[in-house]
């Protein structure tokens, strides 16, 4: 049977295979990374990554959703010229937002690292995150243009190459320049990330330029900013608030452990094991979830634009069924063998600790991710936002109290 290259199944399969390979490479990368830098530095690295997510939420997340959604709609209507307008306006808006956010971080990086993150050793990594955010934003905007128009293979190929480059760049820098103090070690990791983002951003930029039409529709342009804002603002604000709560949770974990009597180094080691070893091991089978969401949003938006509710219902139902069939057995297996597997792979006996409740949490987060993508594709980001914010607030409260 030959699959239609514009179908949801084809896109999901391509992105799932890409994501599986990428997740596997990323998992191997984390194994070598944890053995090179140790649990404490891994904790410092995990401490700055929520800042990366917050900065992307402030600048790019809502705009990438707008590019994906509107590209899909205008592609279904046969209006490629307007798609070019959407991408160019979103890119200009991203650059303006990034300039403002970067200026604030450059001025306030010292109090951010000391008072918000609770560890001055994150300063160098925090500053080096800025070019990484810039390149990632440019990459994601162009990548979601391809997703929205149903061209899955170019971003999939770039993503695989990016993973290889990241693994080689980060591990190569660490092998060449270690030993270093913890702050410089985190800086070396972020430098490796910048290297792979340069490749991805530049490659996708030139691939997109070959496809886009420069002609535009002035009539549509009068209303385009409003349409972009109606999608980007609620999704961006939701992502920002969710990432702020997630960042607060990450910062609170080591701080509450210290408050309970642990030494600072012990608390950072425990945090590094949890977020840098145990959770990545559990998330390895969830590779297809991100791919499914990337394909589901534009496909549902296309079904809505064409007025086909039966197609929308069928796609949502199949997505939930696929999630159940793949995730539930995988989490059951990892809950059984995870403790021994984590100790063998990471060389850390605590890597499999608390794996059963964490596995249950991963299952629920997969369902939440698929359903949130469905709501965004249906043009109901507010409903997805309320759920995400309530769950984030509950997690934050539990971390603080328990």
Describe this structure in words.
The protein has 402 residues and is mainly alpha-helical. Helix content is 87%, strand content 0%. The protein contains 12 helices and no strands. The longest helix has 52 residues, at 8-59. It is globular, with a radius of gyration of 21 Å. It starts with 7 loop residues before the first helix and ends with a helix. Mean pLDDT is 82; it is low at 215-219.
Topology:
Elements: H1 8-59, H2 61-76, H3 80-116, H4 123-148, H5 153-177, H6 182-211, H7 218-259, H8 264-283, H9 287-305, H10 309-346, H11 355-377, H12 381-401
How many helices? The count is 12
* Computed CA radius of gyration, to the nearest angstrom: 21 Å
Fraction in helix: over 70%
Q: What fraction of residues sit in β-strands?
A: under 5%
User: For the residues shown, what is the average pLDDT?
Assistant: 82
The largest sheet, given as strand count, sense and whether it forms a barrel, is: none
Distance between the termini: 53 Å
Would you tell me the structural class of the helices and strands?
A: mainly alpha
**Poorly predicted sequence stretches spanning 5 or more consecutive residues:** 215-219
User: Helices and strands, in N-to-C order?
Assistant: HHHHHHHHHHHH
The total beta strand count reads 0
Shape: globular
